[in-house]
Amino acid sequence: MKKFSALILCLILCFSYAPLSFAEETVLKVYNWQDYIDEGKDDDGAKISDSVMELWEKDYLSRTGKKVRVQYDTFETNETMLNTLRTGRSDYDLVCPSDYIIQKMISATEKGNDENIAIEKFDISAMPNYTKNVSPYISELFEKNGWTEYSVAYMWGTVGFLYNPETVLREDISTWDFFWNTDYRNRMTCKDVSRDAYVIGSLYVHRDELRKANKKYKKGEISAEELQKIVNTAANDTTAENIANVEIALSDMKRNIYGFEVDSGKTDIVSGKIHANLAWSGDAVYAMDLAEEEDGKELEFVIPNEGSTIYFDGWVMPKGANVELAQDFVDFLCRPEIAVMNMDYIGYTSAIAGDEIFDLVCENYEEEDGEYEYDLSYFFNGTLSEDKYTDGKAIIRTNTFGRQLTTQYPSTEEVARCGIMEDFGDRNEAVLEMWSKVKSNNITAFSYVMMAFLALVAVFMLTSSIKKKLKKKKRMRR
Amino acid sequence: MQKNNIFSRKTLALPYAVFMILFVVIPLFLIVMYAFTDADGKFTFDNFRTFFSGGHNINTLMFSIFIGMANTALCLLLGYPAAYILAKKEMGFGKATVLLFVMPMWINFVLRTAATRDLLFAMGISGGEHPYFATMIGMVYNYLPFVILPLYTSMTKMNLSLIEASYDLGANKVQTFFKTVLPMTMPGIASAATMVFMPTMSSFVISDVMGERKISLIGNSIQLYFDQGLWNLGSLVALIMLIIMAFGALCADSEGESDARGGLW
Q1: Which terminus in chain B has less CB density within 10 A, N or C?
Q2: What residues contact A105, with CB distance under 8 A and at least 6 apart?
Q3: A39 vs A73: CA distance, rounded Å
Q4: Which residues pair with A30 in a beta bridge?
């Protein structure tokens, strides 16, 4: 009997390893955000075409004659992803975290103090599609922050308000004051994400100084870079004093807004439950498309005047990854035609520029009779072929502002007033504590009453149980 | 019986014992261990200090206990008469009606809560404007079946002759109810209360969805800390909640006498 079961076990083992050993198939393990790549499915989840992963597998086979397979997993928040890596038991070759997490991972790698989230370096010279097609704006941003070696940009966007122009005035919502504007009480939602909420609170606290800086920039007294620096400092100010101020500001905000949300904002604004919400530009584009399809509603997006933040998600390779294969996959994603596929599918803006992307933008948004020349040179310069430029500029003719085009590709002035959310480092816990204070219920008096009540109940129960015991004893004596 | 019989009690209990150790005992041990250590694994009481020095944490704790008690009281108030009517055979409500009351339990509660949110909004009670009220409605709606079922069971097991005796001895309806029906259904009430109070306290999805995330229960605190990778602080909050629950279970146990129970607990 024992021998027989051992035999079966052996057989099972043989069969389960057979495909691996015969075909010599290598596996690339990718860990990405949910709905963040073209998976070749329609709205109902039915498969209609090859996913980007399958296209790469075929492409790799035809180029090298080697078989590869992508194991594709998804996460919902940066923190979940980080927790997975921190177990030390995952063996992903590629992960796609956001800006501040990339920063955290780089610092962990350089300091060597948290090896589970340490990452490998990219060899960009082996990635021709990336070097050729990446937008100069993104590569400059990466260079400036020292991320070039460790990460390759994937998608990017801005943080702003998505709103219904029929019920919300553009001038009211063009400032962070909107969240504190009692005329719109209970009509807008904020993200239930401590970091995003903190940055907004901090920008609001620094609003006067930011407005002055923006005025100076418009007059030409300070450069875009200087303005960005001012916004950056304001957004990432984690001094104890600022945290206290932000706490007061956010607590006031909580009383004025409809609520916090993580994912329901998109659909709630389409259904009309709320009239404005804090949104990432990619989500905003998605909601605009949805609102148009469902009932012809035209939602708009705005980056408040005081300034905001730019976010991006980039690929990193955790230590021990199959560097060669991972680089090949990322470089494949940097092919313009693949970037177009992904952009079309998820609605976010790719970090890749180039002819195909520019054509896509023109095809989607250019208006023949457009009176305004929307200049996107900062993003496309140097990546387009000669005939795409108008007077040396990458220009799209348009009449509409605040819609998909300007949401996906903010203007040069808007980009100038956007900083970057940084890793709060060892101040993270203080910010989190502040956030949990904001989120908790402000009911100190009530909680004293409650404590007194509980104490009474405890005393009552104690006495009654003692009485019961005494009774029992009496009965026993009888 | 042979000693090494495959169907002996010992071997039959083995699968569940393994399950218990893996998924109940070890995690419990881990919670206690994490609650008393810092991020580097050193023994510390700092988590306690952090938790109790923040007044907001105590507010959240008190509020959770309050919501739990209020929900238990409301569910009992609504569920007791319902169960009573259902259990009375002469009223003509069959098992099918019981099914109607229990059926909402079969639909996943996240979906049910999301639907309730939209329904309330359509009725003019938006979670944004009335977060506490909307949360309370969501809680009662979700936990009502858990009250009706144990009450119904204990009521069908009631000794009807005792009620008749009470009438014969000259008690009126109110006296009969308080002197015979209520004591006889006490085990059902106790088990219903435990089934509502504890899950209510620790729930966070219902308050998130119904209160538009403006309300924090103790479950929300745990989730926030765990989500941010602060395992130690989160474990401490979980431990505190476990202690409160154990206390609640003890209270319920002393109410429902162990030999005469008809509940699920």
Answers
A1: N
A2: A97, A117, A118, A119, A150, A316
A3: 12
A4: A72, A94
Cβ separation B65–A440 shorter than 8 A: no
Whether B54 and A432 lie within 8 Å, measured CB to CB: no
Question: Any CB–CB contact under 8 A between B59 and chain A?
Answer: yes
**B250: closest chain A residue by CA:** A461
Tell me if chain B has a CB within 8 Å of the CB of A196: no
Q: Quick check: A41 contacting B, CB < 8 Å? A: no
Contact A153, A314 (CB under 8 A): yes
In a domain, B229, yes or no: no
Q: Does B235 touch chain A (CB under 8 A)?
A: no
- Does the domain at A11-150+316-329+332-336 match CATH 3.10.129.10? Answer given as no
**C-beta atoms of B214 and A442 within 8 A:** no
Strand partners, A68: A26
pLDDT tens digits for B22-64? 999 999 999 999 999 987 888 888 888 888 887 888 889 999 9
Within 13 Å of residue B122, how many CA atoms lie on the same side as its CB? 7
Phi first, then psi: give them for residue A278, nearest 5 degrees.
-70, 130
Residue B198 burial (CB < 10 Å; 0-12/13-18/19+)? Answer: buried
- Are A435 and B216 an interchain contact pair (Cβ–Cβ within 8 Å)? no
Q: Is the CB of residue B221 less than 8 Å away from at least one CB of chain A? A: yes
Q: Tokens 């903190």 belong to which residue?
A: A198
Domain ranges of chain A: 11-150+316-329+332-336, 157-307+417-442, 353-411
Q: Are A414 and A301 in contact (CB under 8 A)?
A: no
Indicate the pTM of the whole model. Answer: 0.86
Q: Which of A27-31, A70-74, A110-114 has the lowest mean pLDDT?
A: A110-114
> CB distance A446–B57 less than 8 Å?
no
Q: Does residue A430 belong to the interface with chain B, where contact is any CB pair within 8 Å?
A: no
Find, in chain B, the residue whose alpha carbon is nearest to that of A258. Answer: B128
A contact test, residue of B133, B214, B216, B255 with most A CBs within 10 A: B214
Is residue B30 assigned to a domain? Answer: no
CB within 8 Å: B228 and A442: no
Q: Is residue B139 part of a domain?
A: yes
Number of domains in chain B: 1
Q: How many CB pairs under 8 A join A and B?
A: 92
A470 touches chain B (CB under 8 A): no
State whether A259 and B211 contact (CB < 8 Å). yes
Rounded to whole angstroms, the Cα distance separating A373 from A367 reads 10
Asked whether residue B8 is domain-assigned, the answer is no
Second CATH level (architecture) for the domain A157-307+417-442: 3-Layer(aba) Sandwich (3.40)
- Specify the CATH number for the domain of residue B119: 1.10.3720.10
The pLDDT of residue A171 is above 70: yes
pLDDT over 70 percentage in chain B: 91
Domain hosting B104: range is 59-219+245-260
Dihedral angle sign, alpha carbons of residues A41, A47, A53, A58: negative
Contact A302, A79 (CB under 8 A): no
